[in-house]
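Title: Prediction job returns without error message
Component: structure pipeline
Severity: low
Priority: P3
Assignee: unassigned

Description:
Job completed but the reporter wants confirmation the result is attached to the right record. Sequence as submitted:
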Amino acid sequence: MASPTLILTLPKALSARGAWAPFAAALALVAGVALLAQVEGDRGIIPVASSEDIEVRGIRVNVSGKNPDDARLKGWELARKLAWQQLDGPAIPDNQLQGLVSAIVVEQERLGPRRYIATLGVIFDRARAGGLLGREGARSHSAPMLTLPVLITGGTQTTFEVRTEWQRAWAGTQFGGSAIDYVRPSGAGGESLLLTYGQTNRRSRAWWNDILDQFSAADVLIPIARLTYAYPGGPVEGHFTARYGPDSKYLGQFTLRVQNPSGIPAMFERAVERFDTLYTRALDQGLLRPDPTLSLGSVEISPAVRALIDAARLAEETAAAAATEVVPSETDAGVVTPSPTPDAPQSLGTFTVQVATPDGRSFDGALGSIRGASGVRGVSVSSTAVGGTSVFRVSYLGDLGDLAAALRAAGWNVNQGSSALAISR
């Protein structure tokens, strides 16, 4: 049976132009509220600050004492010893061990008249404890990596659209001792619209460059968690996959299991540690390095990493030049590309360029072609209109006529106005 169709018939009195005004105002108000609802709400988790200290979490203690304060003190002393044992630290006196601890983090605690039951974290000062543990050289040395944790459960894929325990696990982990430089967005405000699951499946370098520039990152990491439930309230299995880069390259996977949904937060914390180990191993093997096709102009990275990127780019350019022979066309024969002279120094100007972009591929091609034109120092997107005319702001070393000549040399048909250019293929 077909579903019923609701038909609304307006009275004739409302057909007059003036009678529509209140309804139009109400519609605009509803649209505005809907737009605000997309960026407001209960979303966004601020990541904890990363430091170089050594942190051990999840230390469980259950001790008794003469009074509540004495029981808590004994619990903290036991937590220091247990954390030091987890780090495989050498045997040292208790007073020396106490001097290595910079903080005790209370994750959970229950305090009785003579009992102390708690889950604690212990933070050791790296400057004092690193020598005993042999970790003086453990410093972040990867390029900055934008981290987009993806959670797949119940047929839904989310990143920062809503708060999830998977996002919370990444935001609450202290990565100061890791070899990976994680760039962790909070997911608040407009980030929930920009950093979606759909973005992880995009391959366009133009889109990725704009996003990475906003977060001063060189590449992207995509840790994926997929949950399967045996039955409501029963065991939960987590399937975790590590991917990276605009092409979502596969690095590895693993599986964890808990007895019921209440154990999911703890499972996610263990999974984050496993991901860090997996990404670190990939870095040591030379697999985790920034994509040379991405722009790294605004990213601060180490000279060693940048040298590897430059070498990869040079190899790609050499291979492309050997495989492709450029034959000048007849239309380019009469085009002279302007060059600076000592007598007429050129100045950097910013100009508007309009280009027809019927689809996403033409948009990417136009953006890349303009950026590669001779004399162009930078391109920003003023308006994106896939299926229409997009507008770019181009920083060029020269005047508007010189830019027009450079774009003609790049294969564009150029119409020059008084203060802007319109180009087409």
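Comment from assignee: result matches the submitted record. The first strand starts at residue 54 and ends at 64.
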